Amino acid sequence: GAGVSQSPRYKVAKRGQDVALRCDPISGHVSLFWYQQALGQGPEFLTYFQNEAQLDKSGLPSDRFFAERPEGSVSTLKIQRTQQEDSAVYLCASSLEGQGTYEQYFGPGTRLTVT
Amino acid sequence: AQSVSQHNHHVILSEAASLELGCNYSYGGTVNLFWYVQYPGQHLQLLLKYFSGDPLVKGIKGFEAEFIKSKFSFNLRKPSVQWSDTAEYFCAVNPSYGNNRLAFGKGNQVVVIP
Predict the structure, then answer these.
(1) Which residues in chain B touch residue A4, judged by CB atoms under 8 angstroms apart?
(2) How far apart are the first and last CA of chain A?
(3) Using CA atoms, how far apart are residues A89 and B42, in angstroms rounded to an integer?
(4) Are B93 and B103 in contact (CB under 8 A)?
(5) Contact, A100 vs A80, CB < 8 A?
């Protein structure tokens, strides 16, 4: 079956531009996560949705970052006024349920480069 | 909040050698433990996981990991590596109850020389 898909796979933005990153989770998966992976680092948690409800956004690094999942399926991570430190791979993951015992399935990521 | 430590970020070894990657975590409660692998050009995928029960867990491709509660460790092992095991390996944890956000280590870049 189809896995988690993300688009675009690569994005180059000039500093100050706004970007929108899309995630299509596995169909039927209740939980959706966004992670940020800087070069040479492990993924770091950004935010978590259960259906359309954003239950945890404590990992968002600033108020320039905003995520939504309005219909409980596709999610968009928006970064306003991008800065060079935003350059990273943004990973989306989904899981069937919200409990920690459920495996998170990761997408291929969007590599964002801010110039 | 939980945190994860992985040491020896770059590991180079020859085929048939044994591999052991260390993972230590800090968290006051019970946790679920995971090893994820990322092969070149591919996305993160689950290698193995521990929730409860037998602390020695076996995953795909001949990998295994042992949970030692007293040492807060979950080390990954493979007795004999292959060239195809070249990848980046990440240890991750989340609390057994509540928010299941994963906390990852920095990863181990493993290169297996044919």
Answers:
(1) 43
(2) 37
(3) 13
(4) yes
(5) no
Q: Does A102 touch chain B (CB under 8 A)?
A: yes
Best of B24, B97, B102 to substitute, by most chain A Cβ atoms within 10 angstroms, is: B102
Q: How far is B15 from chain A (nearest CA, A)?
A: 25
* Contact call for residues B23 and B6 (beta carbons, < 8 A): yes
Per residue in A50-102, pLDDT (tens digit) is 999 999 999 999 999 999 999 999 999 999 999 999 999 999 999 988 666 77
- Cβ contact B32–A100 (<8 Å): yes
Summarised one tens digit per residue, pLDDT across range A17-43 is: 999 999 999 999 999 999 999 998 999
pLDDT, mean of residues B31-57: 94
pLDDT at position A100, please? 64
Q: A67 with A61: CB under 8 angstroms?
A: no
Chain B CA closest to residue A98? B100
- By Cβ distance, the residue of B43, B44, B100 closest to A99 is B100
- Which tens digits make up the pLDDT trace of A91-113? 999 998 866 677 899 999 999 99
How many whole angstroms separate alpha carbon A93 and alpha carbon A31?
8
User: Would you place residue A9 in the very low, low, confident or very high pLDDT band (cuts 50, 70, 90)?
Assistant: very high
